[in-house]
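Reminder: ligand-aware prediction takes two inputs, not one.
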Amino acid sequence: MIYLDNNATTKPLPSVVASVRTALEERWHNPSSVHRAGQAARHAVELARAQIASLIGVPARQLTLVSGGTESIDLAIRGVLSAGGGGALVTSRAEHKAVRALAEDLSDTFEVRWLPLGPGGLVDVDALPGLLDGAALVSVQWANNETGVVQPIERVREVCRSAGVPLHCDGVQWVGKMPVEEPPCDLLSISAHKFHGPKGVGGLWVRPGVGVRPVLHGAQELGRRGGTENVPGILGAGAAAEAARDWLDDADARARLAGLRDRFERMVVEACPGAEVNSAGRDRLWNTSSIGFAGLSSEALLLSMSERGLAASAGSACSSGSLEPSAVLLSMGVEERVAQGTVRFSLSRFTTESEIERAAEITAECVRRVGG
Ligand code: PLP
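Here is what comes back for the chain with pyridoxal-5'-phosphate:
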């Protein structure tokens, strides 16, 4: 199978599998136990925390380990809003459902203000100052999971900083694919399964001084997140972070993969009249390609591709199984018949040229078949 669904999840590296296995066999003790075996598990967890923290350029003690991107986002947003004095949340409809659905849920208790989106799905930074009076938190993603579009996060940060409002950034798709010298925000969410780590492990970095009220109460994680640590998952995430950091030193590798992605798009657009790349011409992650085949059903396309050995997805993975066009694409102004026929192809750092060529051929074949 040619796997171009890496924004949904990535294959764990052999070093990750080995760490998880070793942890299950040898480090299964509770890191909070005072005996020697417990302390060995604690030591391993803290080593992994340092590896993960170094991927995002922060001190390990500032990183809270959680059960993935969704929990990290929940802790950041719910935690800041409930620690504050009832201020508003500012976010956008381009966010992952983990943010949008949470915002809808919190809107019974807190005011939620939606930042408008401009062309390509970029947040309208000029509209931000007008939304910040009485705001407790702004949440803007770093890169979009459907189109790969990179948000102008530095500009968002400047506006938030001058208004004194903390900024949360969903970095789930960015971290591990792009280098981070220091987070361009006050709270950053990450998830290990997006960079060849295990599912069910993530992190929330919080800048010192930003108040976050725990959601899960307990003694662990310095009281910031209760629950016995997922030692195997955390050790696997540490191994994945270490490998990602090594790979990220190689800017040429990213450029080569971006070139492969661009080539894939050119091949598909040439072979399929009417196909259009969503957020084309914008700054996008090197690995993501969202292509609209107007008038076709993305589900039919995906099934046909899957029969021919190509795995991709429609909209975000979380909405697969549903025939609804992607809310994110619609909110950024993509026409309904294009959104309905949009397929997302997402590469990994291991995707090869021959896979890309074959994937473009299969895509063109499926478009002809489904369209004809
Ligand atoms: N945010 C973004 C941008 C994502 O792509 C995802 C996963 O698809 C999440 C958050 C949720 O992360 P997790 O699957 O680790 O809960």
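The pocket of pyridoxal-5'-phosphate is lined by residues 68-70, 96, 98, 141, 145, 170, 172-173, 191, 193, 202, 317 (CB under 6 Å). The first strand starts at residue 2 and ends at 3. We will return to this case in the review session.
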